[in-house]
What does this fold into?
Amino acid sequence: MPVVVPVIPESAPFSPAQRAWLNGFFAGMLSGASTTVAAPVTSAEEAEEFPWHDSTLPMDERLKLASDRPPARKLMAAMAQLDCGSCGYLCQTYAEAIADGAEKDLTKCSPGGKETAKKLKELAATLTVNGKPALNPALIAVPAAAINGVISRDHPYAAPLIRSAVLNGAGSEKEVRHVEINLKGSSVAYKVGDALGVWPENCLDLVSGILERLDATGAEEAHSIDGTHTSFFEALRRERLITSPTEQLIELLISTASSKAEAESLQKMLVEQGGAPLEGLHVLDALDLAPSAKPSIADFVNSLGKLQPRLYSISSSPRAHAGQVHLTIGAVRYQSRTGRLAKGVASTYLADRVRPGEKVRVFVHESKNFGLPADNSRPIIMVGPGTGVAPFRAFLHERRAISAKSDNWLFFGDQRSGTDFLYRDELESLQKDGVLTRLDTAFSRDTSQKVYVQHRMKENGRELWKWLDRGAHFYVCGDAQRMAKDVDDTLRAVVREHAGLSDDSARDYVMRMTKEGRYQRDVY
It folds into this structure.
């Protein structure tokens, strides 16, 4: 008998994006039925499907699937398909915001990286809104204090930092921080699987460097992102991205440089980038490459990108850590293209620039598709190398707090066991107490042959399949570009080999796991 799928009518009090999402939700929820028909409430329009919304498909295949769709859907197909929230949207709503001209920043899809940014620019160049280019400058509200106690991305909560402690041992090539933030007395609430948004502030050394190169004091007037007036110093400190230069900044320096050689050098660099982000280049590098350029303060500020919040997987359980939220953050420090020591904005903000007791602007980014099973007896398999262990620390503390009777298996990996075994004492204690049933580790630099978490999965493939066959939920957290793809390939190989399935049947099995919510990814 056919299953009737409700369709949200156009008269309902929802935006087009919300209607599309709800229609897709109902269709997806009932997609397991043999026959499905759309039953309009007051409309005959069928629920929209997004066949390209699959992060395992390469971009060219996703774009092909969207080739006959409207511009917003083509933009969506160019994104990473992770709905990770790092851009402040979902893939669909980010694409729609670009298409209707509300969003101008095409570099927000962090997992998509250079490839996505380049393709978005190519597609967006053809867009118009009311007959005008969609990429004209627009104002976006800067975050302000919470209104009526409602905490959100645009109205964060100022929470005191409790501590920021290094987890790595002496001699490690990495610097991973365990960060604790005080939420006592606030209305901020989260569940395991959620992410915490952090609004950072820029490094004052960078701000001073820019002021010096532009012969500015910082007291000059500048327009705030919300259209009000602020000082040049405050714009650089809290509102604008002053690490990675935008194409607009490079073009501004070209147009204001009195040196023809400097202008030609910058122009050549733009051409070589082919529209992709200027990776490895710093705003200070750009200014140093064109010392003869003297743009106005207003033009300079408007050419910079907007400072965005960073989303971090929460590594604590509210049941086990009442009144607190914990993060596990890798401090990013690197050399720019010109050899300058550069820093990750938010990671070093929490590592270096915020002292215990000082306040950090935060909000919760709720996860719709990443969390523990509703059935607390269900076994779970977690793959989280490096800082990817963060949400799984939260999962394990949560399951201990509620005395869940379940099996829990963690695959963890990093460079060296002696210096990079994050939360080692905690994990071994959880294993001793029976909360962590299995712990398999892979340390790539401990031997001449590099071993990663996917290798441990393959070695334990027979047991891994037994867990999956009895309904285990499978989770991955970490790098989307390489690790998550390798883990996905290995998962399919394990299912194929140990379930005795063909390639197509193994792929279908993993796809069913995803639709059933048994395969969840928190990747970036």
Summary: DSSP finds 19 helices and 21 strands in the chain. Residues 474 and 519 are 5 Å apart (CA to CA). The longest helix spans residues 483-499.
